[in-house]
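Batch manifest, entry 17 of 40.
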Amino acid sequence: MKQLTRITFDPEVMGGKPCIRGLRVTVGTVVGLLASGHSITDILNAYP
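Output type: C-alpha cells
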C-alpha cells in the first residue's frame, strides 16, 4: 500500500488527530466540508 506523506499524526498537534502536513487542519474537517457540499475551491480558499 502506498504511504501518504501529506497526512501526519502527532499527539502534540490537534490531540493526535490526522492532519494535513504542516497545518492544524484535520482530515476530518476537510472530509466533513466535502460531505456537506463545499467545493475543493471553497476549501482551499478557506484554508490556503
